[in-house]
Amino acid sequence: MNLLKVIKIDIINILKNPILVLYNTIYPLILIGLFGFIANGNYGGEGVTSYDYYGITMIIFTVLYIALTASNTFMEKKVKKGNIRLIYSPTSKTIIFLSKIFSTFIFASVLFTIILIIEKYILGINLGGENFIYIIALLISFNLLMCSFGASMCCIFKSEEATNKFLSPINMLLALLGGLFFPVDSLGKTVEKLSYISPVKWISECIFKIIYDKDFSMFVPTIAICIGSSLIFIILCQITFKPEEYI
């Protein structure tokens, strides 16, 4: 079975899961509204509203947790039977794990792009005006990284439950260090330095620089790091994915 056909099947399976669809559509809008309302009035400097801040950070948060969607696509019980049939068919193991990565990537990229369009044109959130396309490009590259990361962890841990138990606290730590819920730079030099461990920090800082300073100095390096890291995780999948252990 060729890669495109398997990707199509996997996308259909994702769309059949209402929890995944709701999480990647309604949930981020609820988070933006909730955090924007709670912090309303606290982000008055330089024309930045709380909705502008959380309109960006909550989308990054959603993309960060795409790693768990990739885990679900790979190991969720409802799709495992179909995946086992693939293993027994004349389909290479590379096609099997790549289909999980790319189906999740396509699914998430389409949905968060729609949400960003809603933010920009309906909710009036500042997404950089004519530089909007650069914001989308950054999030798409980060999305590829998280899809690859989630799939590689599945190949290592061999089960959805173990993968999710590992990814959930790791992702929350990355979100906190990246300042998705509140800016961490005001917490001191040590915390500020630690925050750069998180790729979330690079993405959010790059996006805010583009929107408010029209500064593109981080754009190419950030995308290059995301794509390079994605390739490393894909190679890790190739090394660690053993179809016979999946059965």
TrEMBL record:
GO terms for molecular function: ABC-type transporter activity. Coiled coil: none annotated. Residues 19-244 form the ABC transmembrane type-2 domain. Keywords: Cell membrane, Membrane, Transmembrane, Transmembrane helix, Transport. PROSITE patterns: ABC_TM2. Its main location: membrane. It comes from the Bacteria. It is a multi-pass membrane protein. The chain crosses the membrane at residues 21-41, 53-74, 95-118, 133-157, 166-184, 218-241. Signal peptide: none annotated. InterPro entries: ABC2_TM (IPR013525), ABC2_TM_bact-type (IPR047817), ABC_2_transport (IPR000412), Nod_factor_ABC_transporter (IPR051784). It is found in: Cell membrane; Membrane. The keyword Transmembrane helix applies. One of its GO terms (cellular component) is ATP-binding cassette (ABC) transporter complex. Belongs to the ABC-2 integral membrane protein family. This is Transport permease protein. It comes from Clostridium botulinum (strain Okra / Type B1).
